[in-house]
Amino acid sequence: MNFDLDLSIQVLERTPPAMHAMLGGLSEPWVSGTEGPDTFSPFDVVGHLIDGEETDWMPRARIILARGADPRFEPYDRFRHRARNVDRTMSSLLAEFARLRSDNLTELRSWRLGPAELGLPGTHPSLGPVTLRQLLAAWVVHDLEHVAQAARVLAKQYGTEVGPWVPFLPVLTDHPVPRS
Amino acid sequence: MNFDLDLSIQVLERTPPAMHAMLGGLSEPWVSGTEGPDTFSPFDVVGHLIDGEETDWMPRARIILARGADPRFEPYDRFRHRARNVDRTMSSLLAEFARLRSDNLTELRSWRLGPAELGLPGTHPSLGPVTLRQLLAAWVVHDLEHVAQAARVLAKQYGTEVGPWVPFLPVLTDHPVPRS
């Protein structure tokens, strides 16, 4: 598929309700389970998506659209959510993520981006030159990455309970060395 | 986590709304994209989950609970949905999945399963001896497997559009030899 703004927004607007449907109201052992030390629980995943709304995708798009001489992005802190959300509940994080995403998509739509804007350059702190089109495509894929991660982390909590079914359920053995 | 019936039902009842939130109303290129020949599109994934409701998990649980001399499961056809759903829409499949799952969970709850029932044996056609507890745990993990798969298959449609972001988005390179 080639990048398409409307098709991208279709996915971006579905992620908060999808995360809410999968994770909202789940009991504690599901919400806080991880794949191992220093990996994300479903609670961490939602916190990380909130960090993305506040500090990653749209702030970087604004840097590109400002058309400055040095459109270099701020580095992104993958663990900002850990301290930020110590006293939060999954329910409140899901609501906050939905609100932030909705506001960001309202702003994104208001820009009425065309091919000229989508081709504008930015500079990623470690990946180097990128375009606005690539940034927005990466936002979509990043959402789906973390939907898949939340499902995988939940699945792994029952890794031994399925007994002999393990070879039929590859989600249990994906990412044998998990990353956050 | 140890198997718990109520915690299992928490996940099982969330899968239809999660799939609906992620996939309902998406445009065609998202719905029909795959990871390659003979792999599932998101449309196929929902069809496969419907097959599971009709022919896999609950029929096998009933075989176990019948306590017959030979509690052997019928083999499961992973591609039943292909012919079955030729003329269907994603919207109608999502509604059918939700209805079948709801009916199955009503029946599951009505059994009021305790440790004695959960330990009853069945015989998987290729995996051999299993228990009802393992069957139900595998049902939960199978749901999450396919939520993760649907998200991964969507993500891969933008595999080249993200440009240099590929190494930061491992969902794009998971399952390099994909299975259905």
Write a brief caption for the model.
The structure is a homodimer of 180-residue chains. The first copy, chain A, has seven helices and two strands; from the N terminus they run ααααααββα.
Task: Note down, in words, how this protein is organized.
The structure is a homodimer of 180-residue chains. Chain A has 180 residues and is mostly helical. In chain A, 57% of the residues lie in helices and 4% in strands. A two-stranded antiparallel ribbon of chain A has the order 1-2. The radius of gyration of chain A is 18 Å and the shape is elongated. Chain A starts with a helix and ends in a 24-residue tail after the last helix. The relative contact order of chain A is 0.18. The mean pLDDT of chain A is 96. Chains A and B meet through helix 1, strand 2 and helix 7 of A and helix 1, strand 2 and helix 7 of B.
Q: Approximately what portion of the residues of chain A adopt beta-strand conformation?
A: under 5%
Overall strand count of chain A: 2
Query: Span from first to last CA of chain A?
Result: 28 Å
Radius of gyration of chain A: 18 Å
Uncertain runs of chain A: none
Strand order of the largest sheet of chain A: 1-2
Spell the H/E element sequence of chain A.
Answer: HHHHHHEEH
Mass-distribution shape of chain A: elongated
Largest interface: A-B, 57 and 57 residues
Name the quaternary structure.
homodimer
Biggest sheet overview of chain A: 2 strands, antiparallel
What class, by secondary structure content of chain A? mainly alpha
What's the helix count of chain A? 7
Fraction of residues in H or I helices of chain A: 55-70%
Determine the mean pLDDT of chain A: 96
